[in-house]
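Please, structure for the following, as tokens.
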Amino acid sequence: MMIRVLYHDGRFDMVKPKYLASLLDKQKVTGFKRSEGWVMVGRDPLRVNSAQEYHGPERRSH
């Protein structure tokens, strides 16, 4: 699956999901398309890294 992204210069591209987080962290994209529609950075809620969000004890098995 590829995700459509919009860069700051108005170009569109298709990227793999694993690259989207990196593009967002580096502030390279203005928005990206979800199945529900376009998500615009700074306007719409974005997911945060779940490892950073959870502050409780580790419960996953290794």
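The mean pLDDT is 85. The radius of gyration is 14 Å.
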